[in-house]
Amino acid sequence: MKKIFRIVGFLEGISYLLLMSLGLYYKYVLNDPSFVKLFGMPHGILFMLYLILAYLIKDEMQWKIKDLTIVFLGSIIPFGTFYVDKKYLQ
User: Fold this and answer.
1) What does DSSP assign to residue 2?
2) Cα separation, 5 vs 69, whole angstroms
3) What tens digit of pLDDT does each residue of 71-88 get?
4) What angle do CA 8, 88, 55 make, to 5 degrees?
């Protein structure tokens, strides 16, 4: 389960960065919202999967409520999932 969570966290982090960089660049600079639509749905699915998996493995990882809160916040902060992977999963 931890390995799956790490993979989902990595993919969620990449999708978030793509959405915030390429998606917003194309939408606001080039007036083409197609990249936001392209990256938005996969990111949303990965985001929800990340939160669900974090909640499911909290007991296995022996996370306290503070640790779980940091893991959850890592999903909404750019590069946060990479920090969580390094600090809490290795």
Assistant:
1) H
2) 16
3) 999 999 999 999 999 998
4) 55
Rounded CA separation 66/32 (Å)? 40
Please write the tens of the pLDDT for every residue from 12-67.
999 999 999 999 999 999 999 888 988 899 999 999 999 999 999 999 999 999 99
The total domain count for the chain is 1
Please give the Cα distance from 37 to 29 (Å, whole number).
16
Range of the domain at 21: 2-88
Q: Are 46 and 11 in contact (CB under 8 A)?
A: yes
Spatial distance between the Cα atoms of 55 and 71, rounded to a whole number of angstroms: 9
